[in-house]
Amino acid sequence: MQAIARHEFETIYIANRIEKKNRDAAASQEAFNYLVVNAELQTAINLDYGKENFGDEIKRVEQSLADQEQRFIPNLPVNQTKKLVGLLYEPVFPEVGENASIRLPIPMFLGALSQAQRTVNKMHVKKSELFTDKVMARLMNELKKIFTEIQS
Question: For labelling, which of 33, 42, 72, 111 has a CA lying 20 to 30 Å from the CA of 143?
Answer without folding.
Answer: 72
